[in-house]
């Protein structure tokens, strides 16, 4: 047993072979999105999700990854021992659930998952209860996992593909799957009739933003089975600004200077590319997707709309201008309610909680876009609360 770097109080086990990582006992909880809609508007995720992070740290080693800003040192891989068992116990406390989400912080199918299989075990817990689950990956997905996902009609997958240039891919995501394997993920989902999303996330200015190449990338994604495209422009967290600038300099020596000039907008703890650049980029991508008959949305893209005298910034999500789907992930997934040992979809619910004005699920709070915790889902599941929400529906 030893302490993880940067930690004085948490003894955990270090394993060196075959992949250096730490194993940590944890009672961590599933939860909703990190940022609430109010007061500053930093949420553009239309639908609710139950976020699941079986790992922290990632061997894919993308130098631009925003999650490096809050990992201990950005590189350590931490395995949360038996997280699937904790998730199962937490799900059994609920009578209402949203789609599970693997994973907002690190890739669920990075190589360490081959050792512990936590992602597959978590997926099995959700599917066995008939609760939908999704994944986002830059890795190769085993067909066995996709066959499990197929058993639940609202479950789906997202594959992040940044470029058709394999040499550039190796510089951007050195530990990720080869480009051909990423397209194979989409092809396998298409064969199994699983809704597939291709993410160009992020687009790095002057690196993978050539419009002809992006059009060809989208064409290949749609041909492989993608039914929806999601894009974002690179954000630069201040905590890892130097690492990102060093990374782009390795690709081209003149890029740090170009980035200093382009990244002129500050939102919270991040620098953003100028709104004019992003507007041109997203307008073109939206047009390309329309021509290819595929829906389009952005991920966590905002613009400053108001700044008060004390310096507080209010922002606006850009999906209202660019999204062509009902929900930002391109697929309508209803909330689910318990029916005995398993769950059933809420009738009349499309899952787009931020657009809901009548609360078919009976939980009016969901339309306010909070940063919900497990305790909120448990509270909504209590009989007294359910009665209150039933009354609310009747009054509407």
Short description:
The chain has 396 residues and is α/β, with parallel strands linked by helices. It is built from 13 helices and 20 strands. It has one domain: TIM Barrel.
Summarize this structure as a short list of keywords or feature phrases.
single chain; 396 residues; alpha/beta; disordered C terminus
C-alpha end-to-end distance: 57 Å
Unreliable spans: 387-396
- Classify the oligomer: single chain
Using the coordinates above, name the CATH class.
Alpha Beta
E-strand count? 20
Name of the CATH superfamily? Aldolase class I
Shape: globular
Biggest beta sheet summary: 7 strands, parallel
How do the strands line up in the largest sheet?
Answer: 4-8-9-10-11-12-16
Beta content: 15-25%
Report the average pLDDT across residues. 91
> Within the CATH hierarchy, at the fold level, what is the topology?
TIM Barrel
Count of helix runs? 13
Q: Which structural class should the secondary elements be placed in?
A: alpha/beta
Architecture per CATH nomenclature, i.e. the level-2 architecture = Alpha-Beta Barrel
């Amino acid at each position: 047993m030893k302490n993880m770097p940067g930690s004085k109080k948490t003894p955990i086990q270090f394993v060196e072979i075959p992949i250096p990582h730490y194993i940590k006992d944890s009672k961590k909880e599933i939860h909703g999105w990190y940022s609430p809609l109010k007061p500053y508007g930093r949420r553009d995720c239309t639908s609710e999700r139950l976020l699941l992070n079986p790992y922290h740290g990632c061997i894919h080693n993308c130098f631009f990854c925003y999650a490096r800003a809050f990992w201990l040192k950005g590189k350590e891989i931490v395995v949360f021992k038996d997280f699937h068992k904790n998730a199962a116990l937490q799900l059994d406390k609920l009578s209402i659930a949203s789609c599970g989400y693997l994973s907002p912080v690190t890739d669920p199918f990075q190589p360490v998952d081959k050792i512990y299989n936590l992602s597959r075990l978590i997926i099995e817990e959700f599917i066995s209860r008939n609760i939908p689950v999704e994944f986002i990956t830059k890795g190769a997905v085993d067909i066995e996992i996709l066959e499990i996902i197929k058993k639940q009609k609202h479950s789906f997958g997202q594959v992040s593909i940044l470029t058709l240039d394999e040499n550039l891919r190796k510089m951007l995501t050195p530990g990720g799957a080869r480009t051909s394997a990423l397209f194979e993920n989409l092809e396998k989902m298409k064969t199994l009739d699983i809704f597939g999303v291709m993410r160009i996330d992020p687009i790095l200015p002057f690196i993978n933003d050539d419009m002809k190449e992006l059009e060809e990338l989208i064409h290949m994604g749609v041909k492989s089975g993608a039914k929806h495209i999601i894009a974002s422009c690179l954000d630069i967290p201040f905590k890892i600004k130097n690492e990102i600038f060093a990374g782009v300099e390795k690709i081209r020596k003149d890029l740090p200077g170009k980035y200093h000039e382009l990244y002129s907008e500050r939102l919270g703890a991040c620098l953003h590319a100028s709104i004019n650049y992003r507007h041109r980029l997203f307008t073109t991508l939206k047009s390309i997707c329309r021509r290819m008959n595929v829906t389009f949305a952005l991920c966590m893209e905002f613009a400053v709309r108001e700044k008060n005298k004390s310096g507080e910034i209010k922002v606006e999500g850009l999906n209202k201008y660019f999204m062509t789907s009902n929900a930002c992930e391109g697929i309508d997934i209803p909330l689910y309610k318990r029916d005995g040992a398993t769950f059933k979809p809420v009738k009349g619910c499309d899952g787009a909680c931020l657009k809901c004005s009548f609360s078919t699920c009976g939980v009016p709070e969901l339309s306010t876009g909070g940063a919900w915790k497990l305790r909120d889902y448990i509270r909504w599941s209590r009989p007294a609360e359910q009665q209150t929400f039933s009354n609310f529906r009747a009054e509407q």
